[in-house]
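Hi all, long-time lurker, first post. I run a small reading group and we've been trying to get comfortable going from sequence to structure in the token notation. Rather than ask abstract questions, I figured I'd post a concrete chain and ask someone more experienced to write out its structure so we can walk through it together at our next meeting. Sequence below, copied exactly:
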Amino acid sequence: VQLQASGGGLVQAGDSLRLSCQASGGTFGNNVVGWFRQTPGKEREFVAAISRNSGSTVYAESVKGRFTISSVNAKNTVYLQMNSLKPEDTAVYYCGARGSRITVIARSPGQYSYWGQGTQVTVSS
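-- Answer (accepted) --
Happy to help. Here is the structure in token form:
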């Protein structure tokens, strides 16, 4: 499956952005989709993930209450709504998907087999 992440941009602290992760080349058959972020010199960090069949979600503590992950299965798209953005949210954001038969949400990027190209989010103070 090919993943396409979009929706990043330059915003001010306190603003909102919505990122999209769309599957192309066919049906978004993967059940578990996650959002991660990465800054230069640091490892890719877990942000949020969703089990598309059950609707279960998991969030990193740093974004809990501010970010919301959701899935519109009919559109083959997973969204990350980011509110009350902070400068420390600045990063390249990636969406990833686990194997199609896997239903368990994971926080480690090594557990995800498919990745989009990343979208830059910059939050100014």
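A couple of things your group might point at:
The mean pLDDT is 93.
The two ends are 37 Å apart (CA to CA).
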